[in-house]
């Protein structure tokens, strides 16, 4: 987005406040500085020289989970996520990003992952037979989230793939961060380095099809990597296998509500595949949240680093709604959502079983024809 | 307000529900109309001293009691989606954001009512009810942001549902209102009318119980017409059928909508609407719709339904062409739409403009006149700003009324209300003798009409000079400007 386009958007904002409707941050704090219309008014004042671009305005730009719910409701089509990438880029160049974002960026550039874990440990959880990446047209891109805090998810996927004897490869310790968090923070140079390293590895192994359980990685692989690779989210990939008859499921008589994460949902338009996959499991009863698909609220997860208390409050709202629906479990297909809900559950009195979709599958999977 | 008073207030509402940060004060004290700094000065507008978010009716009451004792102005606000300045705190003091009163308190499908907090956005209630097989009797076209208290405060006289069920005030079973002295008061259907349209000058609406209706089968229609005359004739027949939704789009608006990727007919007038009923009555109503629109061409149910889905966005979706927008709202009887549109052709011949109407109660429409503008071109923008006075003149001429009063339209009150205006002031003085509730609004003229007319006239004639005057005013101390206003106007506290 050019500077001219950015300024045009600032003046296009009708200040109608429709952006407030689905904004989880605003609906917790009640402050207009956390709404798009508030930010546009502030930026207008900055452009007209009435306000300095100070910490408060910078904070207002960063106090956003970038879930894009505001864009769904905006009558003038303002895309704040696209705008904020340009804004953050500018702020990064001016050295004005908030300390919390600076810390995250430093961790990412020093460790190559957002969890401040040693890079060569990234493959530590892998069984020894995967220690050396082999050549294969199919790559399971594990993601930092599934390699460090959530290797339950990655292990589940391995077990499913082993059960159906599927030919694939993993990069283990040679897998770099996809670049997504740095892109969101406005640090484009470093993210490109990561993208280049990964692409080189994909080509070395003769990879054609890449699947991942992390929607952030999926979104980045889809939008920022070469189009020579077929990119799939794990739910799309598994649904293909179900439709090809390579996977069958045992019965699972549970009432489940599915939560749409933003990266997979609004950002990439993947709403039906996870639901279809759940419906492919016999006896699953699928129910819906009041606001679902493109209208789903954000889990709050992206704010766990910068504003943890707020993030947990946001996540707790969804927990409460899931609880009120009387479901056996809430299923998401995003590690960030899963972590946000788990963190919220720790400090909340509301108890709901939460699962990232792949975690359900190992005991249910049978090899198809 | 003194530092001590702000401290006391924070003890009333809790530290996390009060802020005096200049940025928050700025963002919670505007509305839809962009007011340049110099214009704020000319009005003598003071930023509020502090902003509070009371979390329940008891806190609203405690804040008002405190403010009344200390003689501090209080300006309540919902989503501030009008452009009349009604939500702008003019005299400083306390800005009261009702955001936290946003719960759906009770849904009773047996007795068919719903109780909601004043800060609840209408769309949340609409979605909640639609998912459970019910509909409201009325809601505004800005439902994704407009709040319950805000819309009732502004009069709630045109919107979705209104042509079928009458003015939305008739849907009110009861209200919980806090009076300026802090007294909590539960109204019945009749007394509720005192607060509907009072724009926060008589008290704070905190909770509303509304009648709801089982959601019927729905059918959507969309017609275009070869002449405005034929279209208005059809509209005159249609509103009598009491449709749930009825709106018109003129060719100027359609052309702007097409420019941003919609596919509207380019004929002089398009009518979109929806009727509901059971299978049998729907057939009858549908035939009546066809009869009323005999002179038009039917454009299909599906596109009509898409317009319905899009009903909250139409009026703003083309704004990027501006990128600013002047919007003038007047309420007139349906037959007056024809002369109005013809007159606008002449008045606005140098502008890019369009009109959307939303059906109101008793055969009136709320006509929204949109004009593309660019606020960065200050002289040209001032020129467009002067159309505000034109809108008032048109409303008056066409047996109508302004859609709201607020701050910018107070000087027309005498002309429009005559004797009734004095009666309204009597009520205001009785209920709010210390004038702490949203002062300088609605029944208190801030700027005498001759000044307004003169300045608007000059904006049209010599905008450069007005701009110079405005810039000059922004260098004068606010105290001096307010003193001058106090000599001429009546609404200086």
UniProtKB/TrEMBL annotation, chain A:
4Fe-4S ferredoxin-type domain spans which residues?
54-86
Q: Which InterPro entries match?
A: 4Fe4S_Fe-S-bd, 4Fe4S_Fe_S_CS, Cys_rich_dom, HdrC_iron-sulfur_subunit, Helical_ferredxn
Cellular component annotations (GO), alphabetically ordered: plasma membrane
Q: Could you list the residue ranges that cross the membrane?
A: none
Gene3D superfamilies tied to this protein: Alpha-helical ferredoxin
Which GO MF term does the entry hold, naming one?
metal ion binding
On whether 4Fe-4S is a keyword of this UniProt record, the answer is yes
Query: Which UniProt keywords are listed?
Result: 4Fe-4S, Iron, Iron-sulfur, Metal-binding, Oxidoreductase
Q: Does the keyword Phosphoprotein apply?
A: no
Q: One Pfam family this chain carries?
A: Fer4_8
PANTHER family for the chain: IRON-SULFUR-BINDING OXIDOREDUCTASE FADF-RELATED, IRON-SULFUR-BINDING OXIDOREDUCTASE FADF-RELATED-RELATED
Query: Mind telling me what this protein is named?
Result: (Fe-S)-binding protein
Taxonomic lineage is:
Bacteria, Bacteria division TA06
TrEMBL record, chain B:
Among InterPro entries, the record links this protein to: FAD-bd_oxidored_4_C (IPR004113), FAD-bd_PCMH (IPR016166), FAD-bd_PCMH-like_sf (IPR036318), FAD-bd_PCMH_sub2 (IPR016169), FAD-linked_Oxase-like_C (IPR016164), Oxid_FAD_bind_N (IPR006094), Vanillyl_alc_oxidase_C-sub2 (IPR016171)
Q: SUPFAM superfamilies annotated for this entry?
A: FAD-binding/transporter-associated domain-like (SSF56176), FAD-linked oxidases, C-terminal domain (SSF55103)
Listed cofactors: FAD
Q: Which GO terms describe its molecular function?
A: D-lactate dehydrogenase (cytochrome) activity; D-lactate dehydrogenase (NAD+) activity; FAD binding
> Which Pfam family is one of this chain's hits?
FAD-oxidase_C
Stated EC number for the protein is 1.1.2.4
PROSITE patterns with a match to the protein in the record: FAD_PCMH (PS51387)
Q: What class of enzyme is it?
A: oxidoreductase
- Please cite one Gene Ontology biological process associated with this protein: lactate catabolic process
- Segments forming domain FAD-binding PCMH-type: 44-215
Transmembrane stretches in the record are: none
> Keywords of this protein's UniProt record, alphabetized?
FAD, Flavoprotein, Oxidoreductase, Transit peptide
Q: Which PANTHER family match?
A: D-LACTATE DEHYDROGENASE, D-LACTATE DEHYDROGENASE, MITOCHONDRIAL-RELATED
Family (UniProt): Belongs to the FAD-binding oxidoreductase/transferase type 4 family.
Q: What is the name listed in the Swiss-Prot or TrEMBL entry for this protein?
A: D-lactate dehydrogenase (cytochrome)
**Source organism of this protein record:** candidate division TA06 bacterium
């Amino acid at each position: 987005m050019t500077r001219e386009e950015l300024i045009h958007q600032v003046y296009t904002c009708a200040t109608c406040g429709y952006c407030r409707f689905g904004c989880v941050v605003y609906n917790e704090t009640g402050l207009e500085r956390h709404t798009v219309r508030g930010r546009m008014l502030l930026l207008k004042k900055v452009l007209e020289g009435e306000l300095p671009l100070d910490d408060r305005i910078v904070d207002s730009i960063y106090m956003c989970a970038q879930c894009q719910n505001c864009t769904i409701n905006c009558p003038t089509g303002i895309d704040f996520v696209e705008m904020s990438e340009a804004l953050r880029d500018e702020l990064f160049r001016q050295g004005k990003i908030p300390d919390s974002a600076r810390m995250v960026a430093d961790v990412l550039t020093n460790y190559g992952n957002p969890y401040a874990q040693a890079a060569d440990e990234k493959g530590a959880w892998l069984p020894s037979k995967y220690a050396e990446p082999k050549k294969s047209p199919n790559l399971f891109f594990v993601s930092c989230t599934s390699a460090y805090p959530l290797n339950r998810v990655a292990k589940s996927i391995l077990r499913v793939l082993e059960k159906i004897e599927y030919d694939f490869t993993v990069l283990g310790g040679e897998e770099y961060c996809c670049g997504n968090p740095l892109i969101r923070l406005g640090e484009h140079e470093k993210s490109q380095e990561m993208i280049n390293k990964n692409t080189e590895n994909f080509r070395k192994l003769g990879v054609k099809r890449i699947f991942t359980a992390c929607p952030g990685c999926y979104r980045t692989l889809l939008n920022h990597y070469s189009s020579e690779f077929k990119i799939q989210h794990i739910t799309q990939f598994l649904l293909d296998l179900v439709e090809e008859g390579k996977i069958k499921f045992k019965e699972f008589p549970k009432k489940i509500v599915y939560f749409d994460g933003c990266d997979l949902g609004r950002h990439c338009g993947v709403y039906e595949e996870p639901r279809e996959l759940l419906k492919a499991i016999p006896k699953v009863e699928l129910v819906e949240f009041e606001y679902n698909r493109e209208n789903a609220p954000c889990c709050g997860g992206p704010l766990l680093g910068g504003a943890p208390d707020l993030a947990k409050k946001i996540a707790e709202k969804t927990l409460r709604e899931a609880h009120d629906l009387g479901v056996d479990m809430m299923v998401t297909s995003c590690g960030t959502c899963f972590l946000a809900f788990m963190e919220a559950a720790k400090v909340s009195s509301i108890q709901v079983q939460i699962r990232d979709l792949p975690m359900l599958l190992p005991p249910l999977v049978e090899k198809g024809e | 307000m003194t530092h001590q008073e702000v401290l006391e207030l924070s003890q009333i509402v809790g530290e996390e529900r009060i802020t005096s940060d200049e940025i928050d004060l700025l963002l919670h004290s505007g509305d839809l109309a962009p007011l340049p700094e110099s214009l704020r000065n000319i009005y003598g507008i003071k930023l509020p001293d502090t902003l509070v978010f009371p979390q329940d009716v008891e806190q609203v009451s405690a804040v008002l009691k405190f403010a009344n004792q200390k003689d501090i102005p209080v300006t309540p606000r919902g989503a501030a989606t009008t452009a009349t300045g009604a939500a702008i705190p003019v005299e400083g003091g306390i800005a009261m954001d009702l955001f936290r009163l946003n719960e759906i308190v009770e849904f009773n499908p047996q007795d068919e009512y719903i109780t909601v907090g004043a800060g609840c956005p209408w769309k949340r209630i609409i979605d909640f009810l639609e998912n459970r097989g019910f509909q409201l009797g009325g809601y505004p076209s800005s439902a994704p942001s407009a709040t319950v208290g805000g819309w009732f405060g502004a009069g709630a006289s045109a919107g979705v549902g209104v042509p079928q069920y009458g003015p939305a005030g008739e849907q009110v079973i009861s209200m919980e209102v806090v009076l300026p002295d802090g007294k909590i008061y539960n109204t019945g259907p009749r007394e509720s009318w005192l607060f509907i349209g009072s724009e926060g000058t008589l008290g704070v609406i905190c909770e509303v119980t509304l009648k709801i209706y089982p959601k019927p089968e729905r059918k959507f229609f969309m017609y275009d017409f070869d002449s405005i005359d034929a279209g208005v004739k059809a509209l005159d027949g249609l509103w009598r059928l009491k449709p749930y939704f009825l709106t018109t789009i003129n060719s100027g608006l359609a052309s702007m909508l097409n420019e941003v990727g919609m596919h509207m007919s380019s004929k002089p007038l398009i009518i979109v609407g929806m009727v509901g009923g059971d299978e049998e009555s729907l057939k009858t109503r549908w035939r009546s719709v066809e009869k009323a629109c005999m002179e038009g061409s039917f454009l299909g149910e599906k596109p009509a339904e898409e317009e319905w889905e899009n009903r909250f966005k139409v009026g703003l979706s083309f704004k990027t062409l501006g990128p600013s927008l002047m919007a003038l709202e007047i309420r007139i009887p349906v037959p007056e739409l024809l002369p109005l549109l013809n007159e606008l052709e002449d008045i606005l011949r140098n502008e890019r403009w369009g009109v959307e109407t939303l059906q109101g109660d008793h055969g009136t429409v709320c006509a929204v006149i949109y004009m593309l503008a660019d606020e960065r071109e200050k002289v040209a923008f001032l020129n467009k700003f002067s159309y505000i006075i034109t809108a008032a003149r048109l409303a008056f001429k066409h047996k109508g009324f302004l859609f709201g009063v607020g701050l910018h339209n107070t000087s027309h009150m005498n002309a429009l209300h005559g004797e009734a205006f004095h009666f309204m002031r009597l009520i205001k003085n009785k209920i709010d003798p210390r004038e702490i509730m949203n002062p300088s609004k609605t029944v208190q003229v801030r700027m005498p009409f001759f000044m307004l007319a003169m300045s608007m006239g000059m904006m049209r004639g010599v905008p450069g000079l007005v701009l110079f005057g405005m810039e000059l005013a922004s260098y004068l101390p606010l105290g001096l400007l307010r003193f001058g206003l106090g000599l001429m106007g009546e609404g200086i506290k």
